[in-house]
Each structure stands twice: as structure tokens, then as C-alpha cells.
Design a protein that fits this description.
The chain is of the alpha+beta class. The two termini are 14 Å apart. It is built from three helices and ten strands; from the N terminus they run αββββαββββββα. The protein is globular. The chain has a four-stranded mixed β-sheet, with helices on both faces. Strand 9 (154-164) and strand 10 (167-170) form a beta hairpin.
Amino acid sequence: MYCSEALFERMQVLEDHEHEERPLLKGMRCAAVLIPILKKQAFPILYTLRSQHLRHHAGQFSFPGGVVEEGETPWQAALREAHEEIGLEARDVTRLGRISDAYSPRGFHIECFVAMVEPFEPELNLEEVERVIEVDMHQLFDPKRHSYRPWNKDERHHIHYFDFEEGLVWGVTGRITANLREALQ
């Protein structure tokens, strides 16, 4: 297990991290996510569990985020979505940096922002989020918790899986989590 001081030192690299800015491909929509890291012992990463009644990705782990609206930057979109989904106030967020962009099979180009957040009481938008899940960061670096394997028995498409104590993270959120792990190593 990593101590909090060592984890904090790891996060400092995000300021100068050279993330991969992938091009916006034809037909893709720009989206942004916030990867909130809670400012407390073990620096837990905050995930949301998507509501069971959603049409897409119901019951899956995700990060607060969504489509970048006209007139806003991706960072502003990530902050807006975090406020709308879990009640996180922008004043409680300190941007640490960006990690590599991700593409989703649903046609989104996702810019990924990592931030330290002050402890807060989540106010959930129950239409979108069932609950907030804290995953202690030390689990991110446990090699037994990460695998890269075929998706749905399709040997052509491999995806990242993180089998955390709190549940399984996979798909695009798994890719983003792998990018975070890589940036912090």
C-alpha cells in the first residue's frame, strides 16, 4: 500500500504531464470528464455509478462528465457536469492537470481532467447517478486489480478492466483509468 505522502508526490507530476491530445475525428462530438481525487487520507478517486434506468451504460462506473456545450471550454463542461451530476462546487476543485484523451465507441472524443477536490456532501442527480463511489488510490497501482483482455470474447478488441474492491471498472472508463494510472507511474 502507498502512503498518502507518496500518493501526493505522484499527483504532482500531472502539472507537467504530456498528455496525448487526440484529433477530433469526423462525426465525433467533444465531451469532457472530471476525475475527482478527494483531498483526504488515501486520496480516493471518485467514480459515479450510473443510474439503472439509463438507456446507455446503466449501472456502470463512470466519471462525472458529458458533452461540451457551445460557448464553453472542455474544462468548464467537466466542472458543469460534476456540479449537475454530484453537486460538486467549482470552488472546491483544484485542477491538477490533464491526461490523454479517449475516444468512445458511441462517438465521443473525451478530454480528461484530473482535479483535487475538497471533501463535500454529494447531491446526486438521481436521473443520472445512483451513487458516488470512493476507490482508494492505492488500488490503482495493484497489478492484480488491472487486466487488459478481449471485450465480449472478441479477440480483435481488447479493453482495460479494473477489479476494485468497490466494483468493476471497464470500457471507456477503464481506458481513462488506465491513462490515469500511466500518468501517475
